[in-house]
Amino acid sequence: MKSLLLLAITGATFLTLPANAAKIDFSPDVAGTYKGTFFAQSGDSSAIGNVTVRVRVPRSGRSATIGINGFAVAEQIAIPIQGKLRLKANRKVKANSSLLGLYGPTATKPSRLKGRKSPFKFRLVARPDAILFEDTLIASMNYTLRFGANSISINGTGVAGFGDSLLPFTIRIKADD
């Protein structure tokens, strides 16, 4: 009898809790295409270029997909940028690159969003099987994602490199309508 009473109280407690208390709703107002600049710096070298950032948010507002495409130029060499971020309402982040698509896609570990409203913070870490230029990429980057009235900015700092040669790495994306 006591176990049934305990079970009833526990069930009533769970029924009164909001089902989506920790969920994030992305505003469909941020959806659109933004054009802007890309800047990356590692050690003494830097890359600058133009990017197009496409933000897609379904009507439900339960997720957001951010596509980053363009080219950066470093020492007269064009470097492709093909990044994709998927943000979910349950705070999960999936990315195709820990460097936001610089040099193309590489494998990343799962991540989580911090913050309920803009700015959002997250960390992207390259998986051990992330291969870039036929070598294993080691990268750990902390990012801040900000949605403005008609703009989006992504700033990241961390370390990246191959093998034992890790260097400080900075990425900045600033785009507006």
Under CATH at level 1, the class stands as Mainly Beta
Overall geometric form: globular
Give the N-terminus to C-terminus distance in angstroms. Answer: 64 Å
CATH topology: Lipocalin
CATH superfamily: Calycin beta-barrel core domain
Report what the structure shows.
The structure is a single chain. This protein is mostly beta strands. 8% of the residues lie in helices and 55% in strands. The chain contains 1 helix and 11 strands, in the order H-E-E-E-E-E-E-E-E-E-E-E. The chain has one helix at residues 2-16; strands spanning 32-42, 45-56, 63-74, 77-88, 92-95, 111-112, 120-125, 131-132, 135-147, 151-162, 165-176. Strands 1, 2, 3, 4, 5, 6, 7, 8, 9, 10 and 11 form an 11-stranded antiparallel sheet that branches. A hairpin with a 3-residue loop joins strand 9 (135-147) and strand 10. It is globular. Mean pLDDT is 86; it is low at 13-21.
Please describe the structure with a list of short key phrases separated by commas or semicolons:
single chain; 177 residues; mainly beta; Lipocalin; 11-stranded antiparallel sheet
Helix-strand layout with pairing:
Blueprint: H1 2-16, E1 32-42, E2 45-56, E3 63-74, E4 77-88, E5 92-95, E6 111-112, E7 120-125, E8 131-132, E9 135-147, E10 151-162, E11 165-176
Antiparallel strand pairs: 1-2, 1-11, 2-3, 3-4, 4-5, 5-6, 7-9, 8-9, 9-10, 10-11
Question: Can I get a quick summary?
Answer:
This protein has one helix at 2-16, and strands spanning 32-42, 45-56, 63-74, 77-88, 92-95, 111-112, 120-125, 131-132, 135-147, 151-162, 165-176. With 177 residues, it is mostly beta strands.
